[in-house]
Automatic annotation (TrEMBL):
Stored InterPro entries: Cyt-d_ubiquinol_oxidase_su_1
UniProt-recorded name of the protein: DUF5671 domain-containing protein
A biological process term (GO) from this entry: aerobic electron transport chain
Pfam families noted in UniProt: Cyt_bd_oxida_I (PF01654)
GO molecular function, one term: oxidoreductase activity, acting on diphenols and related substances as donors, oxygen as acceptor
Amino acid sequence: MPKLRNKSFTFRAISGIWIFVILTGIGIISGAFSVFGAETAEIVDYRTFFGFDPRTTVWIIAELHLMFGAFVLGVPMFAVTVEYVGVLTKEERYDRLAKDFTRLLSASFALTAALGGLLTFALFTLYPKVMNFMTGIFSESFYIYAFFFFGETFVLYFYYYSWDRLKNRKGIHIS
């Protein structure tokens, strides 16, 4: 069986994903600047974020957070599916591919959390009255959200760091 160049493929795949994310972010930001020139109506006096319109600021941060959040939620499902295919076909390359994708999660998860913190900061500073009202309504669900957030973090790190330890027990690792 010929030896595959997995490191080169992995590097290209990771580079391609990051280039896509960066170009998407640049596209969103450049689209936001075209929105600035299109506004002719009188703007209500809101706080600004480094001179930017608060709605556009929240929209850009929320969109980036949403894209990385979808990535962080989608990659584990893809990795488990690929790992399962590797168990069924007994081919090592699927296991390596799943582990390579899982390797992306720690950096992506940290960036998603940072964008979520930035979004929270932007919302509470730019729209304090609205967020005060929303906090009063959703305050009890914040605890549930925190539980799921830390639970997901624990499960993702456990999944990644137990990979080699449970190499011979893939059924347990996948479940």
